[in-house]
Amino acid sequence: MSASTATASASLSDCPRPGRLRRFSQLRAYTQTLSHSSSGGHRSRNSLSSRVPWLSPSSSGPESPTLQVGNSTAPGPESDQPALSRYTSAPTASSHGLGVDTQTSSAESSRSTPPNEPTQRSTNVMARLRSASAVQGRPPRTIALARTATQEAPTSLPEPTPAATDAPESTGTIPTDAVQVTAVSANKKATIRFFPYQDTFQSSRPSLPFVPIARTLPSESSVIRVGRYSERDGIPIPNPTEPSDAPVGFKSKVVSRKHCEFIYSNGQWHIKDVGSSSGTFLNHMRLSQPNMVSRLYSIKDGDIVQLGIDFRGGEEMIFRCVRIRIECNRSWQQQPNEFNKNTESLIKNLGKGDGADYSGCRECSICLGSVLRPYQCLFMAACAHVWHYKCISRLLHQDYPMFQCPNCRAFTDLSAEVDDSNDVVENEEAKGPTEATSTNDSAEVPAGTQPAQATTTTSVEGQQPTPLEPHSEEPDFVTDVENLHLQDDNDEASGSGIDMEDGHSSDFPAPNASNDDLARSATISIPGFQPTQPLNVPAARQPHLRADTPGRSETSDDNPLTPRNDSGPLAFDGRAGMR
Amino acid sequence: MSATIPRNFRLLEELEKGEKGLGAEACSYGLADGEDMMMSNWNGTILGPPTFVYLQPAHRVSVHENRIYSVNIHCGPDYPDNPPTIQFVSRVNIPCVDQQTGKVDPSKLPCLAQWKRSHTMETVLIELRRYMALPQHKKIAQPPEGSTF
Amino acid sequence: MALPKRIIKETERLMAEPVPGINAVPHEDNLRYFDVSIHGPAQSPYEGGIFRLELFLPDDYPMTPPKIRFLTKIYHPNIDRLGRICLDTTGPPALQIRTILLSIQALLGAPNPDDPLANDVAQRWKDDEPAAIQTAKEWTRTHAMT
Fold this sequence. Notes:
The structure holds three protein chains of three kinds.
Chain A: H1 2-14, H2 18-35, H3 43-49, H4 57-60, H5 64-72, H6 77-80, H7 82-105, H8 116-136, H9 139-148, H10 161-164, H11 170-190, E1 191-196, E2 213-216, E3 223-228, E4 248-250, E5 260-265, E6 268-273, E7 280-282, E8 285-286, E9 297-298, E10 304-307, E11 322-328, H12 338-349, E12 378-380, E13 386-388, H13 389-398, E14 402-404, E15 411-413, H14 423-429, H15 444-458, H16 474-492, H17 500-506, H18 515-523, H19 543-548
Parallel strand pairs in A: 3-4
Antiparallel strand pairs in A: 1-2, 1-11, 3-5, 5-6, 6-9, 7-8, 7-10, 10-11, 12-13, 14-15
Helix pairs in contact in A: 1-8, 1-15, 2-15, 3-7, 5-7, 7-8, 7-15, 7-16, 8-11, 8-15, 9-11, 16-17
Chain B: H1 7-20, E1 27-31, E2 41-47, H2 57-60, E3 68-74, E4 85-88, H3 110-113, H4 121-133
Antiparallel strand pairs in B: 1-2, 2-3, 3-4
Chain C: H1 5-16, E1 22-27, E2 30-39, E3 50-56, E4 67-70, H2 97-109, H3 120-127, H4 129-144
Antiparallel strand pairs in C: 1-2, 2-3, 3-4
Helix pairs in contact in C: 3-4
Pfam families (chain C): UQ_con
Enzyme class (chain C): transferase
InterPro entries (chain C): UBC, UBQ-conjugating_enzyme/RWD
């Protein structure tokens, strides 16, 4: 590991390309502004992989980590794409982080993997991140990460020294990397976000609206308590910028004062009903009888948690149940990754007129036309997905200020303060060089690939180590970067190779469901697997549907399990308890 | 120009609307056979139109008040391009209903005679109810309540 | 009637790169209305069956998800007696016909009786899974192998 960081720094100090670094820091700043609200390209597929059996580690047994790698880089990088593996490994670091996430989030299902595997991989990730940070770490990053970081600059700095060799920023870089590394690990483990969820399919009544809530645990032993909001508690803080385990309050009478708790242990988020009277439901399953404490239930990204049951038809806001969509284990998306960097370079192309290279151009997932042509109004979400403004505008206004990416389902608060925190730093170090100074697009990407090479050499997954050629590979970079764009598209097509266009437009796991996969999934049952989940999303939350929802749908036998109760918060229809 | 919704999805929409009770209060309808994939046969009910108390006493009477009429509705394969066929189960004495069979004569009910694709089963039920309430119909002597064709 | 470019593109791609085991063809007189057939996944109770579905792209598509229904009777905990699929297809607009059909095919391979929208079939599936699977196989033979 130290070898890798050493190489990283070596490559850096051997070849200090100020221009590139500056360019990269722009990129960094750019992706930072995009990414602080958690989102990204590969995420949904991978987070889904934790719940969808044909993607889940257990479905393929011990070799599943390799599959993960295959997904996040390219199929068979060692044989087909040696160059690619070089360039993708920095982003791969984040994807690997995800791989770990996936494993942890599907803890039960991944038990079949060799026990040493996760650790190995996570150290690997650490190595990658660290070496990446050796080159990439910039104050902008610090700021962005510090916002979500759970710890102050820690004492146990895992080898931040290589970065210190980067003289111009050495003062800022050490803490930067330190925070970054711990932030990445801590972040990855203990950040959770709650979004209001409207159950469109069952067309039930709207649940209690609330502002999205984020929590990053200050320590692993912290517990997030959820209960009824009380005036005495003061105004609840929805999104503290610092790590916090502040209680989460909802202003609904069907929520008990002490309702449930979110607990983080062994790399996995859990929920527990702490004796609520009207119940906590995880994906419609009631966790405990009234006033009984439940056991811990593990939760994963995309799960739906409901607190209480509508009382008196939920006509009054104060009697509405709370439905929460969980977002956790997504911090990898807040790092620069292959996807958002790719987007960034594509966008830079826009300024280049007709001569620009659009070979890696993505399509707008709404109209399936290509985005990133000049003279079009575009909208880019924090996850770096891009659409024509015309195509996406309805979704922008539908639930404003909440926006859910239709591709990867990441939520964004469109009313969030603009993050200009890295502008200051940016101006100092990136003054001057803009489009004019870069001769081609490769300029910023090689900066990112330097750590890539370094980490590749220590890669455990059998990626072909690539000799370092810091000075002589400029021309290769250009072509490789282009390949990378194309490959990225392939890559996004989930590696199954059967479904090129769906992959990048939807990030949906289904394309992976080749017959083989299906066959496999048919024989394997994953606890908690829910085939509805991939589609079960409030993204296209439809106000008209909501408006249509009457209070009389109890008669419909389609939704017998929807917790619902009009007689009182303490009375139950008994159906929930039967489960 | 809007999309043309195919028959089955149109019927599913109507079914869901009917199940949820989103339609007019005085009418209801549902599938006769919940397993009929073609969704051809439906049951409908019409709550007889009430007396209008603000009218002159002589006109107040509605012979239909508080009666519940049930009808069979058949949606053929060409629904909703063509109207459904309606047949009263409950006896009712109004000109558009054949007194032998209970079938509604489509030429005598405007919404059937001038059928539009946008019309629904509910449209027909509501119009039948309105038809009963017409001044010239609401005093026609009716068969005993509860009798059937 | 002008068909949105997206629908044209999706249709072209469905034709050009068909998904194994899935077939979707638009009606000539209504290009938003597709005849779909899905092969029952191997090793599922639906293996060997060919299931017919219908799919309609509403006016608002892709902002409004496609409407889909099984036309072939099928015994499955997430599909009701009228062929309606208890799969929340209110997915994001980025989902395409192809992806949705794939997820339906996947649903055949992985019936989920714990689905919140479950019906009496789901209850049976939970109470007596072997029997339920047997029924599913029988239904497949009766309705989907003609």
